[in-house]
């Protein structure tokens, strides 16, 4: 028998949804703690200190956001929020409050697994490899040399394009909100200037695509409408 799998705290008041996710996670070797409301979530958080939290935002007692804020005060444990369609504002608030990712209901179990795996892998250590490089698909960003290449082809980026790509690659697989990107690349006075991002992301995609005959490099930056951007492996299936 191998070591026990990662512990997941699953906070969801919908019995059917909770049972489906829990059964599936257990079948894949995770240990699952289940909470049906915010108070139970915090109690289980205290007693179990899970490796990851799946947190429904709409809970019957205390708000899921309050649970998130409480967890973030104490720990960097990865949190994936679960929210209903049409709650973009809630998702952005949760991501800005420190959630690592979100899933929009109804979500598929395959997508849930891929997000849980990505968030757990990121939590293990820094995104860069031993050589200080961030890699996604054919794209490599060398932090030490501040150089970017696609396959073996070096590409010229402006300092802001470089910073933008670096932040996105460092969070590969996870969504980064527009506000967070603007703060990281332009500074905190620019968090409302979403059109900057639009322009710079377009340029980045063009430059990456131009260096790759297959065009795959141009597709690693995916839009998360109303939220921000996410770097994905170019071969990953597109979102439905
Ligand atoms: Ca709910």
Low-confidence stretches: none
Q: Mind summarizing the main beta sheet?
A: 5 strands, parallel
Order of helices and strands: EHEHEHEHEHEEEEHEHHEE
Terminus-to-terminus distance: 37 Å
Number of domains: 2
Bound molecules: calcium ion
Radius of gyration using CA atoms only? 19 Å
Q: Give the DSSP E fraction (strand runs of 2 or more residues).
A: 15-25%
CATH arch. level architecture of the largest domain: 3-Layer(aba) Sandwich
Mean pLDDT: 88
The CATH H-level homologous superfamily of the largest domain:
Response regulator
Compute the number of helices: 8
List keywords for this structure.
240 residues; alpha/beta; Rossmann fold; Arc Repressor Mutant, subunit A; 2 domains; 5-stranded parallel beta sheet; 4-stranded antiparallel beta sheet; 22% strand; binds calcium ion
Molecular structure report:
- The strands form 3 sheets. This protein has a 5-stranded parallel sheet, with helices on both faces. It has a 4-stranded antiparallel sheet with strand order 6-7-8-9, covered by helices on one side. A 3-stranded antiparallel sheet has the order 10-12-11.
- The model has no long low-confidence stretch (mean pLDDT 88).
- The protein folds into 2 domains: 7-123, Response regulator (Rossmann fold), CATH 3.40.50; 127-236, Arc Repressor Mutant, subunit A, CATH 1.10.10.10.
- Helix 2 runs parallel beside helix 3 and helix 6 (159-170) crosses helix 8 (194-210).
- It is of the alpha/beta class.
- The radius of gyration is 19 Å and the shape is globular.
- It starts with 6 loop residues before the first strand and ends in a 9-residue tail after the last strand.
- It has 8 helices and 12 strands.
- It binds calcium ion.
- Calcium ion (CA) is lined by residues 13-14, 56, 58-59.
């Amino acid at each position: 028998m191998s070591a026990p799998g990662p512990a997941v705290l699953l906070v969801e008041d919908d019995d059917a949804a909770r049972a489906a996710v829990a059964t599936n996670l257990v079948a894949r070797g995770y240990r699952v703690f289940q909470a049906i409301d915010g108070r139970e979530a915090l109690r289980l958080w205290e007693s179990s200190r899970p490796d990851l939290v799946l947190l429904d935002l709409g809970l019957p007692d205390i708000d899921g956001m309050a649970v998130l804020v409480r967890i973030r005060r104490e720990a960097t444990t990865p949190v994936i929020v679960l929210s209903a369609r049409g709650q973009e504002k809630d998702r952005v608030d949760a991501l800005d409050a420190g959630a690592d990712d979100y899933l929009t209901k109804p979500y598929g179990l395959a997508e849930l697994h891929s997000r849980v795996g990505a968030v757990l892998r990121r939590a293990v250590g820094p995104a860069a490899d031993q050589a200080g490089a961030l890699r996604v698909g054919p794209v490599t960003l060398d932090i030490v040399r501040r150089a970017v290449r696609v396959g073996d082809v070096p590409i010229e980026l402006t300092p802001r394009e470089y910073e933008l790509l670096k932040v996105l690659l460092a969070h590969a697989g996870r969504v980064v909100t527009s506000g967070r990107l603007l703060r990281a690349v332009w500074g905190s006075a620019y968090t409302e200037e979403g059109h900057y991002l639009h322009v710079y992301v377009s340029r980045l995609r063009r430059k990456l695509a131009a260096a790759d005959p297959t065009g795959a490099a141009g597709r690693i930056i995916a839009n998360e409408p109303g939220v921000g951007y996410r770097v994905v492996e170019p071969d990953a299936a597109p979102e439905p």
